[in-house]
Amino acid sequence: MRFWRGASWRTLPFRWGLLALLGLGVALGLYACQPRSLQATQSPTTQVPSALRVSPPVRSTVPSDSPDLPVETQAVLDGLPDLPNPPRGDVRLVVISDLNEAYGSTHYSKEVDRAIALVPFWQPDLVLCGGDMIAGQKATLPDEAFPAMWQAFDQHVAAPLRRFGVPFGFTLGNHDASNAQGAGGFRFQRERDAAAKYWKNPAHSPGLKFGDRADYPFSYSFTTRSEKGDVFFLVWDGSGSKILPETLQWAEQALSSEAAQSAQLRIVLGHLPLYGIAQGRDKPGEVLDNADQLRSLLEKYNVHTYISGHHHAYYPAHRGKLQLLYSGLLGSGGRVYIDHNLPPRKTLTVVDINFNNAEKTTYTTYDMEAFQVLKPESLPRFLVGHNGLLLRRDVKLQELTAAEKALCINRLGEQACAA
């Protein structure tokens, strides 16, 4: 109180000003002591795109030990009551695919934006994409369309992942850089040139620990390391139905290498799948040629899982010794399964790898429109495509009923239905 004693009307303005400055300093100090996440969500200058918000706004349950989340992540979670986050494995992947819209489009759906915004919630070691990140493969598109599409992809997908510090592994799809051949070489050389220019720009580094990147971004290898073990990834150019002979030769050398064989798990990523699963895509040209031979090659080197896109339908399958993850889509054009009329879904899959578990991988797949976890039993027990029988990953061949086996045999023959 002595501060005020003896004050005259001449000194009061000075002292009032000093008191105001002291008050401002205390207020700023209290604000600086707030948790970072609280500052971020309360900042009036932070602009969150309206497409990220989910109605109604109900705070989701986030584990108390989770790190501070980016503003856009929290904006999505605020509208989701109790979004499930499965138990984490030794290594965690988030798998997405087929992000594009109509030919030449630089637009991305709200499901793409929300999926990317939610990546920090799952805290993966790596995000994988099964291809079709942009919407090329059309001869009438002007040259300037391709850098514009890659710039839009960067804005919606790659740049946020770089900011989150999450590595991004990808395979190029037919709409990104088709390897279809014409009389003078690649029919879609413009797309391939644009893709190479984008991905070879150091500013667009995906943050991977590369092995062989001589043919990057078309075919390459990398490793994800953890305290419990390593996962070796091989990406081949499956942007068309033919894996080129030189690519197959390289793939076999890479899979037989010490880096691949010393890893605890091996995963191969390509856009086109081995076997058909979706109506309208279950035909030659929409799957990889010589599927059984390719599967034998992968099995020879103990590849655990082949991850693909293109068929626009999520399906967790197995054939022989190989797991097959059809990663679905987040963009437009969802498709219906062969012999079924289940509605198409836009999906994202969290893959948890546990090296000591017999199954090695656990899938948690989200319907990104309903924000619900898909139950495996809601999917077809098996699918009979034009080039092979696939079983849902939890179904064994001997568990098929006589009627189910008859459907396969009548379509493909007994031998093709025995594997």
How would you sum up this structure, described in words?
By secondary structure, this protein is α/β, with parallel strands linked by helices. The chain has one domain: 4-Layer Sandwich (Purple Acid Phosphatase, chain A, domain 2), CATH 3.60.21.10. It is 28% helix and 18% strand. It has helices spanning 12-32, 36-42, 71-77, 110-122, 145-164, 174-177, 189-199, 245-255, 258-261, 291-300, 402-412; strands at residues 91-96, 126-129, 168-170, 181-182, 185-186, 220-225, 230-235, 265-269, 305-308, 314-319, 322-327, 347-353, 361-367, 372-373, 382-385, 388-392. The protein has an eight-stranded mixed sheet with strand order 6-7-8-9-11-10-16-15, sandwiched between helices. Strands 3-2-1-12-13-14 form a six-stranded mixed sheet, covered by helices on one side. The protein has a two-stranded antiparallel ribbon with strand order 4-5. Helix 3 (71-77) packs across helix 4 (110-122) and helix 4 packs parallel to helix 5. The N and C termini lie far apart (91 Å).
